[in-house]
Every structure is written in C-alpha cells, then in structure tokens.
Amino acid sequence: MKIEAQWMRGGTSKCWVFEAEHLQEGGTSLDVLLPRLFGSPDPRQIDGVGGATSTTSKAVILHRPVGDDVDVEYTFAQVGIEEAAVDWGSNCGNGSAVVGLYAIEKGWVLPSGDVTRIVTRNTNTNQIIVQRVATPGGALASVPDARMPGVPFPGHPVGLGFQDPGGKTTGALLPTGAATDTITAGGTRWTVSMVDAGAPVVIVRAEELGLDPARYDSWGAGLELQLDTLEQLRRQAAVRMGLAATTAEAARAIPKLAIAAAPEATDQTCDVNVMMLSMGKPHPALAITGSIALTLAARTRGTVLHSITGDAPGSTLRLRTPAGVIETWSQEHNGTLLVGVDRTARTIATTIIHLPEVPGSAVAASLAGATR
Question: How far apart are CA 90 and CA 118, in angstroms?
Fold first, then answer.
C-alpha cells in the first residue's frame, strides 16, 4: 500500500499532511490506518512515520469543499503513541498553520498580493480560521525568513484568525456557566476556570500547585511530581464540561490543562506566565488552540486568568511559555470577533509512505464519520 503525504512544520509542531482521497483509497478505517502509519502502539513509533512525542504524532487531512465560501476544509488527528488510537476531539492550532501554505503550494489557492487570504474550516470543531500567508510580490518566498519562539529556523509567516471561537466544542465559552468552579482531586480542592475557545481548556493557578511564580523555570520539574493528580483533575473537568460521560471515558487530548501565574512585578515582557499539559506531559511551548482559550479567558471577568491579568491586556495578550513569549491578538469587525496568533510554517518533505496491508475490514466509517 502506498500513500502520498507531505511532511510539514506548523508553528512548534510537525505533522503529516494527507489529502482525504489518498487515505480513502486503501478502504481502511482511519482509526486503524493512522496508528499503523505512525507506528503505534510503540513509544518509539519505530516502524512508522510518527515522531514519538505529542507534538510530532499529528496528522492533518485536507479536502477542497465544493460550492462554499471556504477555500479548504481540514480535519486534525492526534495519533496515539503508546496506544493504537486516534483522538478526533479537538483541533491543533500549530497544525492548522500548514493548511494555507499547503493550499498555495498545491495551487488550490492562487497567491494574491503581498498577503494571500485563505478561509479554512476545521471539521473537528466547525471553526472558521482565516489564514494570511505572506506572498511578497504575489508568490511564496523562495527562502522564507520569518522566525518565531520555539523554532530555531525560519519559515513562511502565517497569521491565524479564529472567527468567533467561543463554544465551538461544547456550545458555550463557559461550559459550566460559571467563570470559576471547584474540583476535588488528589484530596485537594482546586479552583479552576473551564473555558472553551479554540479548544476546551482547564486553567489552574500555579500557587495552588505549590509552584513559585517567581521561579518559572522550575515549574516543569514541579509538575512532573503531580501529573497523576492533574490528570484526575483534567478528567473530572472533562465530565463537567460535557466532553465525556465518565472520567474513564475522557479523551487524552481534551480538555487541555493550563497552569498560570502573574509575572514578577519587574517583568515587563509578558502579561502572564503559562505552562500547558498536552497528552499528560508538560508542553514544550504552547498549544495554539489553548492560547485562544486563554485569550478569551483573560477577557472574561471572574476567570482565574482574568484575576491574574486584570483589564490591562487590550488587543494583545503576551503569554510566557517554555519556548518564549507568544503574543495573541483580538479584533472585532462588523460584529465578528477574530482571535489570532502569528506562526511560521514550511514544507519539510514530499513523499510516498509505504505500508504493508493493514489488518481490518473495509472502511468502517467515512472521513466524516471518523471525525464525528
């Protein structure tokens, strides 16, 4: 079995990009096909194309809609590493950054002016994301030179604007109806904010975890000692947010969990210090969909994050992450709210993936069915 694919970096993630029709040719359910392609279950993913980390075991599946105002539709898949499973429950903002670039490189969208606008729809969340890809002189730069925190080499600049992102997964920006809630986990009562924008996120103060706000560099080690308790908290939040019927059924990818604290008074480089957990481990940078949720949380009175930032952040919010400071932006136009962030992206390789026959029957579900 041979499958066409493109290997791309979007933001601080790497993903394999497929056109939907290429994956459907084999007649195998994507829930079976993708783990086998990536080499799961195996912590090394040694017999597949996965990178053995949550930020490199990702797939983006694209197709061109017909008769719509959207240029490209895409589905994001978080492929399990130690489990032969696929999580379809959320989008990936860093992975989203490859979609517009792919569309231009493949000729699906023709460059127009110095910045080309591509309207995309993520099918996991039904979220419209307006992408702006730099095309100086009406073409992609032959040598891209845009840089961003967390990536040592440059790429093409890509702006991602999430259109009215609140409640795309659960139906409400505050799924429980409250700006803060109390959850008991590990014998401790935690005050959290549960927010759905870009992706569902649970926010907890660093101080409640015994982390020193003034020693951000020590947070990772401190979190490693509390991962089991934080996973209990996250799973209970999944039930409260309506994402799962029981804690045992909670997905690995959502909700995400963010730890936040105010920066030192002398630190003028950011508005808030943040560390996020992804697939049960500290994220090396920040999930971009999570940054959208944090941005709206900062704009919502009564949330944990608003209590840290206050009303100071205006059209931008500066988030310190392990990879550096990420800045998000918000703008309203004709009654529509765009919440966005700037990334970079580039193509690493175009290839044919060779795969033995995959066990399993013919397609158990179409692409739409697999993504629910």
Answer: 21
